[in-house]
Amino acid sequence: MMKVVVVDDERMIRLGIKAMIERKFTETDIMLASDGKEALELCRNHPIDLVITDIKMPHMDGIQLIENLQGIETPPFVIILSGYDDFSYAKQAIQFQVMDYLLKPVDRNELFALINKAKGKLDAKLSLQKDEDEYLVNQLNYMLLNPKMNEEKVEEAVQKFQLHQYSSGFYAGIFQWKSNQSTRPKDNFFQHIVKQVQKYDDVSLCFVDSYENLVVFTECLEGLHAVFEDNPFDIADHIGVGMSDKHVSMGKLVEAYEQANEALAYQFIFPHQKILTYEQVKAKKEDSTMVNKPLIQKIFNMLGTNRNDEIRLSLVNIFNIEVMKECKISCLEELNDAINRDLFDQAFNQIGMESIEVFKLYDKVGDMSNFENVYDYFYAVENLTIRLHEYMKEMKSVYAGENILDKAIEFIHENAHKDLNMAVVSNYVSLNYSYFSHAFKDYTGNNFVDYLKKVRIEKAKKLLTDSNHKIFEVSERVGFGNSKQFSRVFRDLEGVSPKEYREKLYTERTFS
Q1: Which end of the chain has fewer CB within 10 Å, C or N?
Q2: Any domain includes 285
Q3: Domain's final residue, options 352, 382, 400
Q4: Is residue 154 packed enough to be buried (19+ CB in 10 Å), middle (13-18) or exposed (0-12)?
């Protein structure tokens, strides 16, 4: 919405121009001022896009107003109102790059043309500003992630981008969105954070980095903490924060960012702590004993046995949260790798690839970054381990009683002509669908679909040999939906079509 200030010491002229603009441009916010002093105050307190001002006014005339507007950080576009006898003033205004002027009495069409001109200039200005902002953010992200950026090169980049020099020192803070439960978009939280920070430090540098986190460089530590005070968004429930040490040299900008990122990573272990500082985490120790490989191997060995409680207790011992809190986050990452390699990968290699379709959770559990905190990760590991354990127990019971599979095969042979599928057969023998799928393939050497095709084709060969049924009748009698599908499967398995097979049999009988 375009914001406009109309300035004239004659009330009726102000109201008349306001009415003309509002009738034509409904998406316009118009404020009125009776002199330059009043208008200047409005422009200082509000982001104004366009000022339409008379020249001759008491207290502060239009020329003085225009001159003072140049001192505002983002000066508005200006259209001056003048009579024929004010031309010398209009010429004086030109040096302040006034956009245009209108002669009194104001012609509505001329006014509308200049409003449109102002809107075009404003759109172009906003577009340019957006492009410049995007360019700066892209360059900053490149700088922060470029391993070749030493202090000297960072200093050069700070000069090039004309960033504010924090002479008294600065901190880096990184705000990470860590919740998908809020009905408010992430952008709302980030916008609120920026406003809170800039109340304390109006020269703070705020932007979103390549990881979609909000980065703040500020010289005022209070602003980072104030984000959590008197906020309407329950920010502490949805945002994690990592904060660097204080740095004086602007060449330390990248180092400060890396420190804040390292601190932020520990939100995974300390999910209830609002802000984690680099000072708190830099002394964490490397502890190779946290990755208890023998115990992980022991859990794998117990899968499929009756030692359910011991498996759960072993998992609790591996995930000793109090020990984790004293260690570097890299130790937990090593534990994640060891669990994947020595527990889950071994289990899936043993029970077969088909089971991966059953346990979709495996893809998620394999990467602990899929979880908000170590507690959620532990419960997921425990859940998948127990499911694997139960699966392997069931498989052992199946292999211990192979008569279950013999019963299933007998059922398939007796009912192959019907609309048969694996769910029907697994229900018949009272076996879980997934367990049955794996056990059946392991027992017969074929998956269910291929085995059923072979059974049907064998029955079809017998009918083609011992009866005069037409091809489509044979197809129906052995359970195929249509004769084309029957012929295709028959050719795939036997190398010839059903018709060719029958003709070959007839020829052999004739000449035998």
Answers
A1: C
A2: no
A3: 400
A4: buried
Q: Residue 422 in contact with residue 433, Cβ under 8 Å?
A: yes
258 and 297 part of one domain: no
In a shared domain, residues 45 and 160: no
Q: Which residues contact 181 (CB under 8 A, 6 or more apart)?
A: 238
Q: For the segment 430-442, what is each residue's pLDDT rounded down to a tens digit?
A: 777 777 777 788 7
Full residue range of the structural domain in which residue 169 is found: 132-276
Domain CATH number, residue 37: 3.40.50.2300
pTM value > 0.70: no
User: Which candidate, 444, 419, 325, 431, places its Cα nearest to that of 375?
Assistant: 325
Taking CB atoms within 8 Å and a gap of at least 24, the contacts of 255-264 are 255/151, 256/170, 256/171, 256/172, 256/217, 257/144, 257/172, 257/174, 257/215, 259/172, 260/172, 260/173, 260/174, 260/215, 261/174, 262/329, 264/174, 264/176, 264/213, 264/240
Question: Per-residue pLDDT tens for 73-106?
Answer: 788 889 988 775 555 555 555 555 677 888 888 8
Contacts 24+ apart (CB under 8 A), 347-351: 347/300, 347/303, 347/388, 347/392, 350/392, 351/388, 351/391, 351/392, 351/395, 351/438
| Sheet containing 205-208: order of strands | 205-208, 214-218, 171-177, 239-243, 275-277
Report CA 132 to chain centroid distance, whole Å: 25
Structural domain ending residue among the three candidates 241, 276, 311? 276
Instruction: Output the 3-class SS for 110-159.
Output: HHHHHHHHHHHHHHHHHHHHHHHHHHHHHHHHHHHHCCCCCHHHHHHHHH
CA distance 311 to 295: 10
Tell me which residue of 133, 122, 7 sits closest to 58, measured CA to CA.
Answer: 7
